[in-house]
Amino acid sequence: MSIFVHPITMGRNSLWLVLPLCMVLAVIYKTIRVQTLRELPLRIFILWLYIIGGLVALGVVFYLLLEYIA
Amino acid sequence: MVSRKGHQNSFAPFVAGILGWLIPGAGHVYLKRTVRGIIICICINGLFWSGVAIGGVFTTDPLKQRWWFTAQMCTGVSGIASWYRQERYRRAITDQMGISPKPMWMNDKQWWDKYEQELVKRKLMLVYPTDVAARAYAGIAGMLNLLCIFDAVILAMLGHFGERIGKETKSSKETSQ
To answer: Out of B124, B129, B164, whose CB is closest to A10?
Structure first.
């Protein structure tokens, strides 16, 4: 099995892969948006927290919908 | 905050767009936003090749995953290199099996059954959840590069070259003149 050729075997609990994906999303978005590069790290971190927080909130809402309404 | 305005060049948006597509971040480097260009290049190529590392050579699949493939091709050279690798592997496999490299029509069940059985045998077949993670990484890298291409093209159209100059820097320059 070689990397870049064969797919890796993943368990069903691979949700942590969302974290680097959201980080790159925040980096790219803020890189093209910020006025000065000095404020970039803080802006990236805040946006990253917002995205993760939003996803967690969505997850909780859908969980509650499935548990108590559906 | 103001940006330095460069010479109005009617080809600049076109050049920035093409460069930004070919090598992610190159459009920004062309617009003299080197640090931003380098950050974009590392992040987009890193995300794309992380996806390929997770999903293997068939992460890029123009036959079965057209929409993801379209998004992946927005990464330029990286996407094309990954497509070329996938084509080479697919042709080598189908040559060894003695079948055509592509199905005659998309719903050619016989071709797909044979081909997918061979992929499973060679442990190259992407299955859930690896396929979702791999294609999301590589595809989102392409879509993010599209965002960067638009940014570079618009900056070039507005004639904004170089980093923004702060108010203090601008006023100090005016005082010195």
So the answer is: B129
Closest-CA residue to A28 (of B18, B59, B48) = B48
| C-beta atoms of B56 and A5 within 8 A | yes
B131 reaches A (C-beta below 8 A): yes
B43/A24 Cβ within 8 A = yes
Contact B149, B20 (CB under 8 A): yes
Q: Contact at 8 Å (CB) between B79 and B60?
A: yes
Q: pTM for the full model?
A: 0.89
Separation between Cα atoms, residue B108 and residue A2, nearest integer Å: 30
Query: Which helix (DSSP H) or strand (DSSP E) does residue B4 occupy?
Result: strand B2-5
CA–CA separation, A9 and B124 (whole Å): 11
DSSP A67: I
pLDDT digits (tens, 9 = 90+) for B54-86: 999 999 999 989 999 999 999 999 999 999 999
Q: How far is B148 from chain A (nearest CA, A)?
A: 7
